[in-house]
């Protein structure tokens, strides 16, 4: 469902968060995705979810 490459995943997640979802929780609920898994993958790549900006940075 999501790209395996962390850079591509970053792009997809931030686009969806910007355009379609008001939070990571909403995205994960709607797409039946594991929030912890997404956060772990992104943190391993050096990115952290900023809830105030609703984006991975």
- State the separation between the terminal residues, measured CA to CA: 21 Å
> What would you report as the Rg, rounded to the nearest angstrom?
10 Å
Helix tally equals 3
Structural class: mainly alpha
Shape descriptor reads: globular
Specify the helix fraction band.
Answer: 55-70%
Number of strands: 2
Order of strands, widest sheet: 1-2
Q: Strand portion, in percent? A: 5-15%
Q: Topology as H/E string? A: HHHEE
Which stretches are poorly predicted, pLDDT < 50 over at least 5 residues? none
Characterize the largest beta sheet: strand count, sense, and whether it forms a barrel: 2 strands, antiparallel
Mean pLDDT rating: 97
Question: In summary, what is this structure?
Answer:
The protein has helices at 6-19, 24-31, 35-44; strands at residues 49-50, 55-56.
How are the secondary structure elements laid out?
Layout: H1 6-19, H2 24-31, H3 35-44, E1 49-50, E2 55-56
Antiparallel strand pairs: 1-2
Question: Any overview of this molecule?
Answer:
With about 55 residues, the protein is mainly alpha-helical. Helix content is about 55%, strand content about 5%. It contains three helices and two strands; from the N terminus they run αααββ. A two-stranded antiparallel sheet has the order 1-2. A hairpin with a 4-residue loop joins strand 1 and strand 2. The termini are far apart.
